Queue: 3 jobs
Job 1
Amino acid sequence: MKKMNLNLKMNKKLLYEFLSVTFAVFLGLMLNQWKDNRNNDKLAKQSNSNILSEITDNKTTVQEMLEEQKLALARIDSILPLLDNSDEQGDTYIGMNFQIISSTSWETAKLTQAIVYMDIEIVNDIAGVYDFQDYYESIVKEFVVDNIYNKPEKRDAEFIRKMKVFLEAIIPMENNLIEYYDYLQSELIDIT
């Protein structure tokens, strides 16, 4: 009987230790999961904030370029009839300034896998805006590369016409890009 009481006490003690260790491990895992979730949420919020800041800067850059492109197009419209009706070239210089539009925050969010913890609809919207931005930049880059060696004094009516076609193509794209930035800003402001 003593032996049975001793076994029963030992079994109770083992059961108690087993349950307390199991509970401690469970608590540790829960705490670890909570910390991971908190860190992942913090990473997603930081990425959203960085993207919002980058989008705001990009919007300002595109707005500045848009104003310059509109002025350049107006200048082309005013000098093109003169070039068509005259053998003299005159002052045909049309300055255009293209600036780099950043995508560093988006690329960082992808590389750090922060997008895994971001809202899927927001990620989809962000990806769409950056894809359109990349498309816009590819068109600008192609034009610049094709015309980089065309000196201002060698710009003739044909080049001016090409520039006009180019500007007529990218001005609506810049307007669209600004609208996309506005939409994305409103979405990101709501969640940051």
Note: The mean pLDDT is 88.
Job 2
Amino acid sequence: MTTTIAAVSVGRDGNAVFVLCADGKLSQGALGSHNRATKLFHLGYNWMALMAGYWNTARGLCEALMVSMAASGRPPSDKGELKDVIETAGNRFAASSLWKEDEPCRLIITGFIEGSPVMLKVDLEEKHYITIDPEYDFCAAGSGEEAAKLLLNHRGADPLKTSLEEACYAIYEAKKFSEMAEGVGPVTHIYIHANRGDGKLCYNELSEKALEHLEEVRKRSSLQPVTDLMPKFPSSFFI
């Protein structure tokens, strides 16, 4: 149970980057929970996965994809090859005894092919069966998924008209809004996943100072309490 969000931002220079976001909450049933989990996984080359759903399933699937990616000896050259790599490893994992059918997971996979951003949503919900769907603009997963998408749609998230700074704010705001969903933790991690052009890993995490700045903007720009803004209705308001 979590919230993970990915969005594309294309700056004025035409270079696309991904803004990736996740909370840090990891529930362990009767053993309690903590907010220290890292839900971003490096699959190999410059491909990343955000994990949602059951932790053991998500980690196991990511490890299977990482092995498959390494076995190819080079990054995928097109979307078809990428889909084949994910599908082959994913279905092998899904058919194994390494996961329980009642412990599904979802991944948001991001990377670049010939400089173009590629985002896929991977679902593992049924035994022996994995689904792979292309995503554009933005994608969310986890128990806070609907709330995050609702606010991103409200903001009119558009990667072709959104600067990196605006994209980071929209993602941060959506994640904070999603905290109303059960299971979403208060800790926020935001990563910038970029393309160096050589297929090697390229990402950075926003600092605590940057998150504090985004929170200050949110206090000014997001939904505000109305308690002090609503005076008592005068008698003329009633028929």
Note: Residues 55-71 form the longest helix (17 residues).
Job 3
Amino acid sequence: MHRHSRQRLLSAVISVHLAIGASLLATGCSGDDAGADRAAPAVAWTHDGVNVVSKPAVAAGVAAVTELRGDGRLRTSVFDLAGGGRRLWTRPATMAGRLVGMGVQPPAVVAGQPAQPLVVALEPRPSSGRPATLVARDARSGRQRWSRPVDSTFGPAGCGPYVCVTESTARATARFVAIDPATGRNRWRLPGIAEVEWADARRVVVFRMARRPVLEARDLRTGAVQWSFAVDAAVGAGINLTGGWDFGALGDILVGHIAPYRAGRGKRLSSFGFFGVRLSDGRLVWRRPALLRVYPSASPAIALITRAVDRRGRYAGFVRLDPRTGLTTGQLPAAAAPRATWWLSFPADLSAVGFLVPGRAGTAFDLSRGTAIAPRGLRAWSFCTVAPPPLQIVGQRGFYPVAALCAYDLTTGRRATAAGAPPAWYTGASDGWRVWRDERGALHAIRDAHGTTPGMYG
């Protein structure tokens, strides 16, 4: 599921949070420069003639998304970042075995051979005897390079220079496969379901989803195990992945979050919390069990604003952590939250936390000192809606688009005008490009950042 945190998406977040208390429709994150306002953009564009429903995949000078057409069918669309958002090509897309809590899968953009980046996506192919085909295409021309039939999968992902995917997710024979991008052939495989959480040119770290979930580092060429870490050593026994999870890398630290799940009324929450593992050797660096990720929020590697919850689902205060060490860097008592229904919100620089009350004046607090500040003139970002309608996808039910953020005036609880681009902690950046969908599904891009950093959805 994701970032399910790894997103992981708003549909899963809402259902899980309603199960343990609706007051947690919140937001969080912080970083030294991830949320700061940037200099004037060198390039910016908007593509209104689309209905983007997935997270954008951005690399190699292109942005690839999954779109929903007017007839209820999906398609992969690829756009030229530096070319003003010109659409390069489209192809029909599909989902086969994707869990609804994961949201609509994006394509994967992988480096492939030098100067030959690929966009890899799932395309419908009923004539093959399988419901779908994994197809790799030239990122700029859309020319097919290779394909392979699949019956069920969560979707492809880039893992360093390779393509990774779990196949046959609906079967006992599920397997995770690393694929040579030049030929489409397997480099190595491992049994079961796994997800890529981090990779460089030599190694990949996967999250193996089993009764006892494990993080595992493997050599990208051979698949040889380099280290293994059982996640219950960080958050406790009794993990249930139905609640979701998320990971993000900060230097040599992989920061993870396991979300709670309650099997029914009166039941205790499953084990949950945050932790940091060293990428070089898999050693546990820090652990903070019984803390819940709030939404919307940055990647765990960028910022950690959390809420303490006991195993019976009773809320305590808000806690900000240093993702490098897990140490507390700020606290806000639960009593600070207003009694009215609220959404958490944050200014772009993450200097404060706001309790947004739609249509009414809200309250705000300095995150470092935990003291109240005047909300007048404070523009804060939160979900555009917490009750989006489900997508009308042919053959699929229960999917929602990636949640969009809107700017609000905390003084009035109304939408702010001329808000500009959402903060970098939401969009992330790839080679300085920040790409996002708005609440109407339009695609936006701006090059006003530096380097590559993760955003709210990974």
Note: DSSP finds four helices and 34 strands in the chain.
